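Escalated from tier 1: cobalt (II) ion holo job.
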Amino acid sequence: MKEITKKKIRITDTTLRDAHQSLWATRMRTDDILKIASEIDDAGFYSLECWGGATFDVCMRFLRENPWERLRQIKKACPKTPLQMLLRGQNILGYKHYPDDIVERFVALACENGMDIFRVFDALNDPRNLEVAIASVKKYGGHAQGTICYTTSPVHTVENYIKLAKEQEAMGIDSLAIKDMAGILTPGAARELVTALVKALPEMPIQIHSHMTSGMASAMYMAGAEAGAGCVDCAISTMSSFSSQPPTESIVSILESEGFDTGLDQVKLAKINNYFKELKKKRQPASSSKVEAVDAGVLVHAIPGGMISNLRSQLAQQDALDRLDEVLAELPNARADLGYPPLVTPTSQIVGVQSVLNVLSGNRYSMVTDETKKYAAGYYGRTPAPIDPKLRKKLCGGLKAIDCRPADLLKPGLAAAADELPPNTIQAEEDILSYALFPEVALGYFKWRNTDPAKREPIPADVEEASQATVAAAPVAGAAKASASAEAKVDGTPVLAPLNGTFYRSDAPGKPNMASDGATVKAGDAVCVVEAMKLFNPIKAPAGGKITFVAEHGKAVTKGQVVAVIA
Ligand code: CO
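Tier 2 regenerated the structure:
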């Protein structure tokens, strides 16, 4: 009798991270996870992606949870299956470069608290931004998975991807992920890329991560598996599709029909899915019911899942939702101008917000965020293609351009972060890392945690859920408030908020004010900041004179609101 050996393929479950980040604005709670954790642990997945990405920030900001505690609890509930996280290289989980000592300590504590597999990526595919994170994962005993952020452009060729993979191989990665965050990898391109990778790096396990945004990912996984990928990322069916991963149950059936052994059992998967079907009633945001199952537009604009919903909510914040089509048309142009970065956090924010500003201002690059400025000057790493020198100079706006690894310019930051924390704020060393990553958010969470439970403000996510039913009346009230404040009478030249957002008098939390109240400023001086769409937009003095601030630091402002007066 002919012996049949089944080809093995494994599946990583993303339900506890990417899936709810893509579909539920990352609002799954630790309690939601723990109720089903042992069934997921029992199912036979290769790994459980359950931490990193946006979960860390959202835990503290909206759920009033300690992300480190979430990790410990998942580890305790899932002792059998390796836990996996998404780590943005030198950006850790934030939007900027952190000093090396913070990257290393973060990885060390993540390992200590139960993390096993670290998928390390850099938005620009700049290997220099992966070095320290990968070395730290190796040092503390984790599995370092390197990453190719997949995108298409004249400079993103199979040849360049192989070069990138070899650079990461030399850093000691244990496996390699092809990260197709936009769901634009076609089956044909996947077959070509995986075949080339297997040939160039025969010992390297290849994993594929994609999103169903354009509807291609299931077919692409099949092509990738046939070409030699050893693992694919899926989410349980209720948490799958749309801008999330392909459904586990369907992929298992597809792969098994082609002679692959996934090691997963449909009955166990069905039980897990039933749980999420119920949970969805409580946790799915009302807005997501309006999303199309397949967005074929992605095949044209190549914008990742999550990014479009971000653009939508950013435009809604600016009362300009009707301009979404213009922004989607502007985005590929802005991306080309900026050297074809793959669109993934943080470049997706930078290019996305810059596109919004290019459209709303009516004059491209007349408003440039601090982040775009730094990006153009090289502070995020090397752009895949060079930026036109004339445009680069304009975008830099006087900021010195650099060529080195951005983090080489940073002083160690861990001790300084610990010193900055007010006394009696923290409970463990992990809190210092939370603060180093997200200072304002962490302080807000620590304050909430240190408040007598009877006197605590309600959990923001609870308020959101309660208000979903009454959402209809809100925008009208907001608009009325905006126009009222715009009409406020002032003596002198008003400084207006150019966008809806949060007003800050300093350019970074904990930094001194950009202009002190009553100081004399020159026209064109950056005097304050409006944080909108998660990015800091410096506000320049429209005239010279003595400045008096009207808006309060850290409070919401609306477009056109007077934030200061110069007389
Ligand atoms: Co993803």
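The mean pLDDT is 91.
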